[in-house]
Design goal:
The two termini are 25 Å apart. The protein is built from three helices and two strands; from the N terminus they run ββααα. By secondary structure, it is of the alpha+beta class. α1 crosses α3. It has one domain: Ribbon-helix-helix fold (Orthogonal Bundle). The protein has a two-stranded antiparallel sheet with strand order 1-2.
């Protein structure tokens, strides 16, 4: 069943290359991002920094796309 709370935007502060910024993502994306970071033995800030370096559009969009692609890859395996 759909959890409406999971779809609510949550703002978190992260540090990217020494600079604090806040990112708004749905709770479900934060949860999966933390899980992916843990699986890769990375801090969330480090994973976000890597995504920030590689992105072409908005950071929040890059994070959402990364999480979705990671989940799709796990389903295919």
């Amino acid at each position: 069943m759909y959890d409406i709370e999971d779809a609510k935007l949550k703002k978190h502060s992260v540090t990217i290359s020494g600079h604090r910024t806040s990112i708004s993502l749905e709770a479900c994306f934060w949860r999966h991002l933390r899980t992916i970071a843990r699986e890769r033995n990375l801090a969330v800030n480090e994973l976000v920094r890597q995504l920030d370096e590689a992105r072409a559009g908005s950071l929040s969009g890059a994070i959402r796309a990364f999480v979705l692609q990671s989940l799709e890859k796990n389903v295919r395996q």
